[in-house]
Specification:
The protein has 3 helices and no strands. It is an all-alpha fold. The longest helix is centred in the first third of the chain and has 18 residues. The two termini are about 65 Å apart.
């Protein structure tokens, strides 16, 4: 009984494998283009696109800010804010 089941399973596996067989090189996915442009025209267009393209990703530039505030004044304001409880100080424990 088990041998018969195993032989049926083997035949089914071989049949399924044969149904999926195809060319090994994948040529059915090859794209075909019909163009009238020359290689020189395409190369010239590619060169102009490369010259106008930026190597810097959009939005990655850091904006610099020049402060006119005095360091001592900022420290004094921060100390005053901690003293009056406007900003927390020390470690925070959520538990």
């Amino acid at each position: 009984m088990f041998a018969r089941f195993l032989s049926v399973a083997a035949v089914a596996a071989f049949a399924a494998f044969g149904a999926h067989a195809d060319e090994a090189d994948g040529s059915q996915f090859a794209l075909k283009f019909d163009t009238n442009r020359t290689r020189a025209e395409v190369a010239a267009e590619a060169a102009t696109v490369a010259q106008t393209r930026s190597i810097e990703p959009a939005g990655s530039r850091v904006v610099t800010y020049k402060s006119t505030a005095d360091r001592a004044a900022v420290r004094a304001q921060a100390a005053e804010a901690v003293r009056t409880g406007q900003i927390p100080s020390g470690e925070f424990s959520a538990m």
